[in-house]
């Protein structure tokens, strides 16, 4: 039974990161619609999808309990509101990046995200890291610095994606909720922003959505947003966090492949060197995690 549960967890994790890794293909189908407008539609449709899904999977009671507990704790509610807007910044940056042709920077951002996360843990949770983890962070920093100085291109997309998702994870640790409640509440608190945006655009400007194929594909943005998050959550509770940490590199690797071979973004020697610094940092980070797993004390087996 445990082996079956483990296999399911690995399967869910692969589904989550394969979807995230191929998302540039989906967003590339949506053309001629403003990135900000796309983001607002995504927020509203994600909320609609979750409100339909909750009763179908019998999670409505759990959602109401989580919502009541947040309302009773203003500090936790504020953290969830902030986390909702932080992940919205991440979503918006991703959509903008695909539309503006920064697919490789997107890949770079999600490669360095785990290294940003351990840096944030050190700053806010006073966690201590070994030398290998420091070396990994150093090489990521050198890669970003090299890209900025040699290419004259500051990787703002990469850093916004890495830090926004890192901060999002940090906030989620402060207020742990089950995935379905979390996604629903985050879209509830950001939906007013989307509604105000649509009212403003209809009153003073015009919306770019309409009866066209891009708008049709946009209708699936709620599902595309929620499904990988739910798969990720289902995987995370079934397999060790260390294994999830290795599987997560499927996402940026797929995005990198798409950027070079599908979207045909320029990839010269200087960009290759930048990625080599990042890849080496990731390799060192993975080695550090493997060493931690090997050195972890094994539970004593009971003998009769």
From TrEMBL:
<keyword id="KW-1003">Cell membrane</keyword>
<feature type="transmembrane region" description="Helical">
    <location>
        <begin position="132"/>
        <end position="148"/>
    </location>
</feature>
<comment type="similarity">
    <text>Belongs to the EamA transporter family.</text>
</comment>
<feature type="transmembrane region" description="Helical">
    <location>
        <begin position="154"/>
        <end position="171"/>
    </location>
</feature>
<protein>
    <submittedName>
        <fullName>EamA family transporter RarD</fullName>
    </submittedName>
</protein>
<feature type="transmembrane region" description="Helical">
    <location>
        <begin position="215"/>
        <end position="234"/>
    </location>
</feature>
<feature type="transmembrane region" description="Helical">
    <location>
        <begin position="246"/>
        <end position="263"/>
    </location>
</feature>
<feature type="domain" description="EamA">
    <location>
        <begin position="158"/>
        <end position="285"/>
    </location>
</feature>
<dbReference type="InterPro" id="IPR037185">
    <property type="entry name" value="EmrE-like"/>
</dbReference>
<feature type="transmembrane region" description="Helical">
    <location>
        <begin position="39"/>
        <end position="57"/>
    </location>
</feature>
<feature type="transmembrane region" description="Helical">
    <location>
        <begin position="77"/>
        <end position="102"/>
    </location>
</feature>
<feature type="transmembrane region" description="Helical">
    <location>
        <begin position="183"/>
        <end position="203"/>
    </location>
</feature>
<keyword id="KW-0812">Transmembrane</keyword>
<dbReference type="Pfam" id="PF00892">
    <property type="entry name" value="EamA"/>
</dbReference>
<feature type="domain" description="EamA">
    <location>
        <begin position="8"/>
        <end position="148"/>
    </location>
</feature>
<keyword id="KW-0813">Transport</keyword>
<keyword id="KW-0472">Membrane</keyword>
<keyword id="KW-1133">Transmembrane helix</keyword>
<dbReference type="InterPro" id="IPR000620">
    <property type="entry name" value="EamA_dom"/>
</dbReference>
<feature type="transmembrane region" description="Helical">
    <location>
        <begin position="108"/>
        <end position="125"/>
    </location>
</feature>
<dbReference type="InterPro" id="IPR004626">
    <property type="entry name" value="RarD"/>
</dbReference>
<feature type="transmembrane region" description="Helical">
    <location>
        <begin position="269"/>
        <end position="291"/>
    </location>
</feature>
<feature type="transmembrane region" description="Helical">
    <location>
        <begin position="9"/>
        <end position="27"/>
    </location>
</feature>
């Amino acid at each position: 039974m445990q082996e079956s549960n483990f296999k399911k967890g690995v399967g869910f994790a692969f589904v989550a990161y394969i979807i995230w890794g191929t998302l540039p293909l989906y967003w590339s189908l949506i053309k001629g619609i403003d990135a900000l407008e796309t983001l607002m539609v995504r927020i509203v449709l994600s909320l609609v999808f979750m409100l339909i899904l909750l009763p179908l999977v019998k999670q409505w009671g759990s959602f109401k309990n989580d919502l009541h507990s947040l309302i009773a704790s203003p500090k936790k509610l504020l953290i969830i509101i902030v986390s909702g807007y932080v992940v919205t910044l991440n979503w918006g940056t991703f959509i903008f990046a695909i539309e503006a042709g920064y697919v490789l920077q997107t890949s770079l951002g999600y490669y360095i995200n785990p290294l940003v996360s351990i840096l944030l843990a050190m700053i806010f949770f006073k966690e201590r890291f070994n030398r290998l983890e420091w070396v990994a962070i150093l090489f990521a920093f050198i890669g970003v610095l090299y890209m900025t100085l040699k290419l004259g291109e500051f990787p703002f997309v990469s850093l916004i994606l890495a830090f926004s998702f890192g901060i999002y994870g940090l906030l989620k640790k402060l207020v742990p909720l089950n995935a379905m409640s979390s996604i629903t509440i985050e879209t509830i608190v950001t939906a007013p922003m989307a509604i105000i945006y649509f009212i403003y655009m209809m009153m003073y400007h015009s919306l770019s959505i309409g009866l066209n194929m891009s708008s049709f594909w946009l209708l699936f943005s709620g599902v595309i947003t929620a499904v990988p998050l739910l798969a990720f959550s289902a995987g995370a509770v079934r397999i060790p966090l260390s294994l999830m940490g290795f599987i997560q590199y499927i996402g940026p690797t797929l995005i990198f492949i798409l950027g070079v071979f599908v979207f045909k973004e320029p990839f010269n020697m200087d960009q290759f060197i930048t990625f080599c610094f990042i890849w080496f940092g990731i390799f060192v980070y993975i080695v550090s995690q493997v060493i931690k797993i090997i050195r972890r004390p094994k539970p004593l087996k009971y003998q009769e």
